[in-house]
Every structure is written in C-alpha cells, then in structure tokens.
Known about the structure:
The protein has 331 residues and is of the alpha/beta class. Helix 5 runs parallel beside helix 6.
Amino acid sequence: MDKTKDCINMTDKQPLKIYLAAPRGFCAGVDRAIQIVELAIKKYGAPVYVRHEIVHNKFVVENLRAQGAVFVDELDEIPDDGQPVIFSAHGVPKKVPENAAARNMFYIDATCPLVSKVHKEAEKHHKAGREVILIGHVGHPEVIGTMGQLPAGAVRLVETVEDVAALTVADEHALAYCTQTTLSIDDTSDIVDALKARFPHIEGPFKKDICYATTNRQEAVKEIAAKVDAVLVIGAPNSSNSNRLAEVAKTYGAKKSLLIQRAHDVDFDWLADVTTLGITAGASAPEILVEEVVAAISKARAVDVEEVILREENVVFNVPRILRDNEESAA
Length: 331
C-alpha cells in the first residue's frame, strides 16, 4: 500500500465542521411504540399485525417487518387468526377499536400518551358543549385520529392564520382549541394568537399540546442554525416533526436545509459549498441513521464533529401491562 498516496488523499479532503444537535432522534412515544411491536412478536409470535406505519420511518418499519410484523392499511386486511393487531403511535379514530372489538380482535394500542392527552382534551371540551378547533395538517394520521374521537363535524381543522380569519362558529363563547403534537412551535403560536384575538373566550389546553420532544428538537436546531451554512435533517418525508425541523433550520439562520432518509440520500454536490453543517434527526429516526450519515460524509470530507447539547431528556413511557407483565415474569 502506498502510504504517501493515502496521506495526500486525506489532505485533499475539504474540511467540514459538523454540529450534531441534541436532543435528536427517538422520543419516548416512538421508543414505546417500537417496543410494543417487538414485545408482542416475542410474546405471541409472528405475525403481529400493525395498522399503518407504527412510526413514520422506513428503516424502523422494515426492521420490524423482518422480525414478523405485518403492516396493513385497514382492519379488513387482517384474517381472523387470533394474532394481535397494534394501532400506531399516531392514534386512531374511535371507530377503529370499536370495529376491532366487533370482530373480537385482540388489539394493543400504541398511541403516544401525549397524543392520547389531546384526545381526552377534545372529548372533555365536546362534553362541555364547546366546539373544538384543531390546529394541524389535513390528512396527517394524528389529525385523523384526533378528529375521529368526536362525532363528524364536531372538530374544525385550521392550518393557517388565514384559516382562522375564515372560520364561522356557532357560538364564540363556547369554543376550545387543541393542536397536533408535532407542529412548528412558532407557526402554532401565531395561529393560537389569531384564535385568541378573534375569539377572546376560547379555551386552550392546560399545558401546551406540542410534545416535549418536538419542542426540544426544534429548540436544538435553533441553537445551531445560525452558526452553520446548511442543516441536514434525517427523517421520513411523511414525518411532520422532521419536516418542521427543516423549516425551522432555514427560518433561524441556515442558508439551506434538506430532509433525507438515509446515507445514500446525501447529495455531495449540495454540500460542495458547505463548510459548517448541522445535523439532526426527527423523533422517529434511530441514532444508527445519524451515525450512518456522518460516516458517509466522512469518506468524502475531513470532518470535525461537535455535539451541541441543549438539554437532556429522560422521559420514559411504560408499555401496556399485558406486555410489561411478560417482561417482569421473565426477569
């Protein structure tokens, strides 16, 4: 081996400073949902059916599929074989567990507890006679699940400040709002301000609905955005919180940002004029994908990696008792 040539190749690499935002990647709700599928497969054997993607990440879904998970769009795709069906972390409309119960299906709900909190808020306001306004993105599974907790027409969806201006309500003294948990903090704040300005009597959540993980990941990106030329966000294109991270990065100082799923998506032409790079990962993206991306970039650039830690996270959500009991007895 020509060591001199290797040294020349190393020195030819363009330097790149990488700032890793922390916290990043898996949140407690995602971690819990994945554990539920894995523990169900371990306890009941394959197949274990999962309605929709358990979380929005292809790598995670494929890994679970290899273990014995079968992903379906609707319950009618599942045979009556007695095997468990798991509802995704995003939550489901009430009719889904009702239909499962009508078929005597054995189902396990992996809805994130923070999403369930929003469901309970919406139900509480509806029972109190309030019209519910939901801030969220049309068509997102979490929004479909939250709207599906109440009768058709009981929830009004708004996505923008302009939507608030166009709202017509039955009684402006009997209103409440909830939000999707994975929204942009800043955009949601503007919409909430617009709702309060137009409807001064509107009721809100006791605590903000946007989850701690979404908030922390956005704040961590804000911390590094102003000091970098560009930001790479590792996450799925259908992941709301990942898309919001890419938007936040540009809003807070990065010249450009890009959402990618895996190392093979790294565009080295896009990185050619970048000397400082921020990297983060959406709440459904495992840390192994971050390591994979950094390793791929390191082959082409002389990287210096620094982790910028905004705060530590220690939130843990327990899996359902039916699966937890199995683990406790095994221990």
